[in-house]
């Protein structure tokens, strides 16, 4: 029976490249000369350390633009509230959202059920599998889910016939 998976994942190599490009731009910008601003990344959490709120906002914009240019949806970045660091510096943690949370997966399956398409959807760990007898119905379902706004970056993989 034809099926596909709805997932939320990112290419970690592209994310690493985006972080490296952001570091390089911050190192070369005139308004960051002499500051202690930096970006740390440990493959799960990105930590932004800046001298003040202005530099923190600029670094956030730089990071988002680099992710976007690398083809990564910026909805995978979840920014926490800025917190004070040592001295007068500010720190902000950025989580990378990988996988679909169970609450969002339930919203997706309910939305697919309510669409009256002739497909079945089921939650499997951190992804949603959609099956149908017709590939056309699956393609219609993909377009339907793309038109919805679930506030997470979704990809459609594993199309099998």
What features would you describe in this structure?
- The protein is of the alpha+beta class and 161 residues long.
- It contains 4 helices and 9 strands; from the N terminus they run βαββαβββαββαβ.
- The protein folds into 2 domains: 3-8 and 100-160, Alpha-Beta Plaits, CATH 3.30.70.860; 12-96, Alpha-Beta Plaits (2-Layer Sandwich), CATH 3.30.70.990.
- Strands 2, 3, 4, 5 and 6 form a 5-stranded antiparallel β-sheet that branches. Strands 7-8-1-9 form a 4-stranded antiparallel β-sheet, covered by helices on one side.
- A hairpin with a 3-residue loop joins strand 2 and strand 3.
- The radius of gyration is 20 Å and the shape is elongated.
- The model has no long low-confidence stretch (mean pLDDT 90).
